């Protein structure tokens, strides 16, 4: 089922749109010796102190991207089961991208999400930081380095008509089959939203004009009304946003996804929690 509402843009979306336009002519390579991270700590995290997150979170990305427009990234919790703290949010920052704040993941309080994977655009050789906020109120940071170039301006993989026809289509896949383990056991699932996720830096090959930024800025996943995971996304998330994650079932019968894009379209779909479908 697809609905249409016209909400105002979130602070993240508005900021990303502005950043996209401001950096339309950003160079393909980062300025030599320039480190944007201290400024990002101030702008994104209000200069809040950060601790080494090596025992809290890991970030997995290829050292050299095969395709800079679809670079896989996986975030994993490293908290011990005996740790009374939990991760509330994870913010993914691609330092040298035109809009560095790629996504903010909010984890459901009772969903026990321990791994999140998606695909991102990487525009330059860059550090990529992941910052976890825990229930103790502290921030913990980890980083990796990725060699890639031009991911934000790379042409879309699908032609415009095909991309338009797929807008709002959703797919859901449950990797743990019904009957495997207890009903409340750990699950792994994947949700894909058909959307061009235009970055604002891509050029129309016919008109030679920049295609306006147009992307999914909010995705909420829930099981029978209980939040599993929500995502605030931007231009760094690849075409056809794809989120794979682990969580603990609460015995729900249905799994639901609701997505919103920067033009105010809202897409909703619900599936049986035990199955897969479109």
UniProtKB/TrEMBL annotation:
<dbReference type="Pfam" id="PF13501">
    <property type="entry name" value="SoxY"/>
</dbReference>
<protein>
    <submittedName>
        <fullName>Quinoprotein dehydrogenase-associated SoxYZ-like carrier</fullName>
    </submittedName>
</protein>
<dbReference type="InterPro" id="IPR030831">
    <property type="entry name" value="Fuse-rel_SoxYZ"/>
</dbReference>
<dbReference type="Pfam" id="PF08770">
    <property type="entry name" value="SoxZ"/>
</dbReference>
<dbReference type="InterPro" id="IPR014756">
    <property type="entry name" value="Ig_E-set"/>
</dbReference>
<feature type="domain" description="Sulphur oxidation protein SoxZ">
    <location>
        <begin position="183"/>
        <end position="271"/>
    </location>
</feature>
<dbReference type="InterPro" id="IPR032711">
    <property type="entry name" value="SoxY"/>
</dbReference>
<dbReference type="InterPro" id="IPR038162">
    <property type="entry name" value="SoxY_sf"/>
</dbReference>
<dbReference type="InterPro" id="IPR013783">
    <property type="entry name" value="Ig-like_fold"/>
</dbReference>
<feature type="signal peptide">
    <location>
        <begin position="1"/>
        <end position="30"/>
    </location>
</feature>
<keyword id="KW-0732">Signal</keyword>
<feature type="domain" description="Ig-like SoxY">
    <location>
        <begin position="42"/>
        <end position="152"/>
    </location>
</feature>
<dbReference type="InterPro" id="IPR014880">
    <property type="entry name" value="SoxZ_dom"/>
</dbReference>
């Amino acid at each position: 089922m697809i609905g249409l509402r016209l909400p105002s843009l979130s602070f993240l979306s508005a900021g990303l749109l502005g950043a996209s336009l401001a950096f339309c002519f950003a160079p393909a390579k980062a300025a030599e010796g320039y480190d944007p991270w201290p400024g990002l700590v101030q702008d994104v995290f209000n200069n809040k102190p950060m601790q080494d997150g090596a025992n809290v979170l890991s970030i997995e990305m290829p050292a050299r991207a095969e395709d800079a427009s679809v670079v896989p990234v996986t975030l994993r919790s490293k908290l011990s089961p005996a740790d009374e703290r939990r991760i509330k949010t994870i913010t993914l920052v691609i330092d040298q991208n035109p809009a560095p704040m790629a996504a903010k993941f909010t984890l459901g309080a009772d969903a026990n999400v321990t791994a999140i994977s998606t695909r991102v655009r990487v525009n330059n050789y860059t550090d990529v930081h992941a910052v976890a906020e825990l229930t103790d109120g502290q921030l913990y940071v980890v980083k990796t380095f990725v060699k890639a170039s031009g991911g934000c301006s790379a042409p879309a993989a699908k032609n415009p008509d095909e991309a338009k026809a797929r807008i709002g289509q959703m797919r859901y896949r449950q990797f743990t089959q019904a009957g495997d383990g207890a009903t409340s056991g750990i699950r792994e699932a994947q949700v894909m939203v058909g959307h061009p996720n235009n970055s604002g830096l891509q050029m129309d090959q016919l008109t030679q004009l920049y295609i306006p930024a147009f992307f999914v800025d909010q995705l909420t996943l829930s099981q029978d009304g209980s939040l599993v995971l929500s995502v605030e996304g931007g231009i760094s998330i690849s075409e056809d946003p794809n989120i794979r994650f682990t969580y603990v079932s609460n015995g729900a019968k249905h799994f639901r996804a609701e997505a919103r894009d920067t033009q105010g379209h809202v897409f909703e779909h619900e599936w049986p929690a035990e199955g897969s479908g479109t």
